[in-house]
Amino acid sequence: MAQYKLAPLEKLEGNNRLFIDIKGTEIVVLEHEGEVYAVRNLCPHQYGDVGAGMIERKIVADVPNVGERIQERYEPGKRVIRCPCHGWAFDLDSGDNIADPQNAPGIQTYEATVEDGVIYIEI
Amino acid sequence: MSKGTSVVDIDAHFIDHFDELWHYLDEDDPWRDRFRAGAEMDARKGNGQFFPKTVYNSDYEAIQRSGFESKEGILEDMDDLGIDKILLIGQQLVRLSNIEADDFRPIKYVQAYMRHLMQNIVDPDAGIYATLPIVQADPDWAVSMIEEYADDPGVVGAVMMSHAGEPPYGNHRYDPIYEACVKYDLPVLFHADFSSVDDFHYKGFGTNLETHSLGFIIANMCQLTSVVIQGVPERFPNLDIIFQEAGLFYIPMMMYRLDQEYLRNPDLAPLLDSLPSEYMKEFYFGTQPMEQVPDKKYFKYVIEMLGGPERLMWASDWPHPDYDEQSVITELPFLSSSEKEAILGGNAERVFSLN
Q1: Cα(B332)–Cα(B233) distance, rounded to whole angstroms?
Q2: Do B63 and A87 touch (CB under 8 A)?
Q3: How many Å apart are CA B177 and CA B179, to the nearest integer?
Q4: What ipTM does this complex have?
Q5: Distance CA B69, CA B148 (A)
Q6: What is the CATH number of the domain that holds B99?
Q7: Which residues in chain A (79-108) have CB-CB distances under 8 A to chain B?
Q8: Does domain A3-122 have CATH number 3.10.20.30?
């Protein structure tokens, strides 16, 4: 693992995203609700630019009582990024494919930190 | 891809708008003003005023991909997707067979659409072609449109929307259409569409995920059953038939389901001389959307059953949310290079005479 100094945090203001090539791997760095995330910009489905996708809250549901409708809710603190090509969705923290975290392919995520107003990632 | 082999996309959706098309109706045609008024009133450019529309789009059904409404935009997207030749079908027109009233809307729309498309968009030298939308509700008028456009090198096929055509397309009322297509050497494409939760023929589904999963397949299954069992291949043996936008796995299922049923009741299909599966092996199939499988070897079995790679034509369905890249074909490990080239373009070039 190596740490890379990327850019001042202010570069992500205004929902701006950084698309960076590190050793031939394109990585997207973004800020959402005060958190900085870094993901590989490659969707496992058909290789789309997943890093350009929308960030959404994760919708979950519990098994309803007999005869009742499924009640959807947002899972607190969970965000997903959706590939703009076909809508495949991935947990922004873990990179897991939210459709099937165990079996469906996910995306690569990286540890992103901010020190003294500068973004670092570890690869 | 080897030198000289083209990539042909047999299904891409030109984004047609009422507010463009009304200009292409004759000035003394009352429908010109009706379309214009609808386009001016409706924020969605007349769609909601005149055509059945998709209800309850999920956020990803509403993926916005701009540009596919001008020749420049189409050429740009073709370049991005690595496409050399493209067959355009109108975006609004997939809802043509949903019109249940007996009125002039589909006729006027197709008339305006084709005038606009042929004047401003289609360019065979640039690889942009059109398939002629067939107004199934008026076969005589449809034949007149075939006769009007058949000699244009930019028109390479006729497309019938399989979603809601009634009676289904094996019915004899469509014979003049097939006869005209044979006469002018136009392949017929049957293009599926889906239903949203409010207009699916089974009521009460909860999400577009369900009806989108089912609608395309059911549409093609219905029309395919009618076309085969009513003997369209026997009545028009020189007609090239393509079914598209329902993936691949339903095809062998239908082949052997129909064989089973036909063998029990051959007297109900007296025109047939062969098993339904044998007729289907003479059809062509658009590949999109390729199913998501845990092991690509399953495609090998399916492709073998439906008659081999020579029956397939790659389609993107761009700019729709479930479009396919070429990788769905190029990454099938059991196909040879020549088989991939055939699916990605060679078969379509031959069948649609694009060379």
Answers
A1: 31
A2: yes
A3: 5
A4: 0.82
A5: 24
A6: 3.20.20.140
A7: 82, 84-87, 103
A8: no
Q: Is residue B239 part of a domain?
A: yes
Tens digit of pLDDT for each residue in A44-97?
999 999 999 999 999 999 999 999 999 999 999 999 999 999 999 999 999 999
What are the DSSP calls for B211-276, one per residue?
HHHHHHHHHHHHHHHHHHHTTHHHH-TT--EEEESS-STHHHHHHHHHHHHHHH-GGG-TT-SS-H
Take residue B207 and report the two structure tokens written for it: 């999400």
Residue of A42, A43, A45, A46 to mutate, testing the B interface (most B Cβ within 10 Å of its Cβ): A46
Q: Is residue B303 part of a domain?
A: yes
pTM of the entire structure?
Answer: 0.91
Distance CA B108, CA B51 (A): 12
Q: Where are the domains of chain A?
A: 3-122
**Separation CA B158–CA B133 (nearest Å):** 6
Q: Find where tokens 């789009």 sit.
A: B57
Are the C-beta atoms of residues B24 and B101 closer than 8 Å to each other? no
Q: Using CA atoms, how far apart are residues A98 and A111, in angstroms rounded to an integer?
A: 19
